[in-house]
Amino acid sequence: MVSYSASLAPSASTARTILVIEDEPSIADAIAARLRSEGYIVEIASDGPTGVLRCAETQPDAVVLDLMLPGIDGLEVCERIQADRPVPVLMLTARDSEQDLLVGLGVGADDYMTKPFSSRELVARVHALLRRVERSRLDGTATKPREPISVADIDIDPTTRRVHQRGEDVHLTPTEFDLVLFLAETPGAVYTREDLLEQVWGYAVASGLRTVDSHIRALRRKLGNDLIRTVHGVGYAIEEAA
Amino acid sequence: MKRLPPRPHVPDRPLDAVTSIKVKLATLIVGAVGITVFVFWFCIRILHIWPSAAGIIAGAVALLMVSRLARGMTSPLREMAAATQAMTKGDYSQTITATSHDEVGRLAAAFNQMAAELAETDRVRRDLVANVSHELRTPLTSLQATLENLIDGVAPADPRTLQTMLHQVERLGRLVTQLLDLSRLEAGTMPLDRHPFAIEPLLAHAVREQQLTDSGIAIEVDVEDHDLVADGDPERVHQVVANLLENAVRHSPHGGSVQVRARRTADSVTIEVLDEGPGITPGDADRVFERFYRADSARAASDGGAGLGLAIARWIVDLHGGDIHPEPRDPHGCRMVVTLPGAHSLPRRPQEITQ
């Protein structure tokens, strides 16, 4: 049985808009019906170019995006909609090989689900994505700015949400930033993948554990292998002096 | 075909050019005896060494020479034993150094070829599993999401929703049927029931079936000779025509039309299915017959085709000894041309024609 760590209801009183980009009409309709029943406004686009266009028009709060699309594929759609402004993206994929996954994360998808998936879980993940965006927005506008953190050779600024490594700016996706910030706040502390899923993603579902591993791998690719240590059988930790 | 890795350094193999293992062994024996006798004679007569010591020297020289000449005669056999072991674990990459021209060399070459073919079969099997699971995911996702909605009261169980689900189940069913057909065709367990049959009623029947799907695409049948009779398995030929019609209708633009033509060409029957769709580019002309290949990979996701229809059609046509290929149409569209050998010139009375 799946257990979700937080309330399923959207936190804001105003309705949020979700854009669903999926070319199989029956899947798009089912997802849309489910999201509408949770109080979201749902827009549907059935191919890549339309998806990019609708995203610019409707300014959605989150995007559910199929990886295999006619016209231009999901990865490119993800890149284009992220180029305009940061928007959380939940990627749907029919291929579950790790490589596709990492490429997906590289272009800024914040979470992914492999087909066939449960639409109940999809809704929970959309909620979690939106809560995370809400939280980071609060961080950004907090009256008391949070202190920058320096650990090993990286500097993390929670206010501007920027990461520098040896003075160089490193581009991280919102999820990657949240993950590295969470680990860096308590250097040396070891967190299990379940902890990280609950604290950073905001949900605890067994099928999400691979999401944590992939994001750790993406972080290592960008920040080097030495920063984040794997504690075998337990989880992950950031080392003070890498 | 897998590319073979570069050959490792081959030590000098003096008898490689000999084409028979019998001649090789004879050469070795004669050579060994000859050298022994010569060295023995040389030691005793010229060097005046004791006969027992001369015997030992002669034996040693002969052994050295044999081991030198026999180099490379048995190593392919040992390599083959090692490679077979590796194959049982799924590693087909090991190749045998086959430089000799005798039976062992030919065996090693055949072994390498077999290994390459096994590796190819293995790759095709893996691809098939990956493709099949991909084809299963979309209808399953749709069914799961819709069923969850019904159970949780998110969507009503109205006829439209149920129809969508039925459509997905039919899609899964069609995929299973096509996979079984293809597997039977490839295994050769679906023998042809060949006899003369009339072309026109077969085409008309296939068109009627296709029109039941209510696609809104007009289909015209044009048969030059109403008594045209072909030789083959009518049930399988019907399957070919049905698959081609399904493709043609699926790729037709809204309000487009599809034509089916049949005519005699020399000793064969040519059936053509023409559509006004986007057509097949010359680069795709061969690949469209591969299992799960689609000209536009994402396009077919929602239109129901799994990419098996043309693979099945080609198998059937090949079994008949015929030919199938696409041709471009001007300005756009596709003309699928099927040629079946064995046309009959004699007009037959309808009751003689079995269909």
Overview of the molecule:
The complex is a heterodimer of chains A (242) and B (355). By secondary structure, chain A is an alpha/beta fold. Chain A is 43% helix and 20% strand. In chain A, the strands form 3 sheets. Chain A has a 5-stranded parallel sheet, with helices on both faces. Chain A has a 4-stranded antiparallel sheet with strand order 6-7-8-9, with helices on one face. In chain A, strands 10-12-11 form a 3-stranded antiparallel sheet. In chain A, helix 3 links the parallel strand 3 and strand 4. In chain A, helix 6 crosses helix 8. The radius of gyration of chain A is 18 Å and the shape is globular. Chain B has 355 residues and is an alpha+beta fold. Chain B contains 8 helices and 8 strands. In chain B, strand 4 and strand 5 form a beta hairpin. In chain B, helix 6 crosses helix 7. The longest helix of chain B has 49 residues. At the A-B interface, helix 1 of A face helix 4 and helix 5 of B.
Unreliable segments of chain A (pLDDT under 50, ≥5 consecutive)?
1-13
What's the average pLDDT of chain A? 81
Indicate the structural class of chain B.
alpha+beta
Tell me the number of helical segments of chain B per DSSP (H or I, 4 or more residues long): 8
Distance between the termini of chain B: 42 Å
Strand content of chain A: 15-25%
Order of adjacent strands in the largest pleated sheet of chain B: 2-4-5-7-6
Strand order of the largest sheet of chain A: 2-1-3-4-5
How far the N terminus sits from the C terminus of chain A, by CA atoms, comes to: 39 Å
Largest sheet of chain A: 5 strands, parallel
Helix/strand order of chain B? HHHHHEHEEHEEHEEE
* H and E string of chain A: EHEHEHEHEHEEEEHEHHEE
Which range best describes the helical content of chain B: under 10%, 10-25%, 25-40%, 40-55%, 55-70% or over 70%?
Answer: 40-55%
Total strand segments of chain A: 12
Principal-axes shape call of chain A: globular
The whole-number mean of residue pLDDT values of chain B reads 83
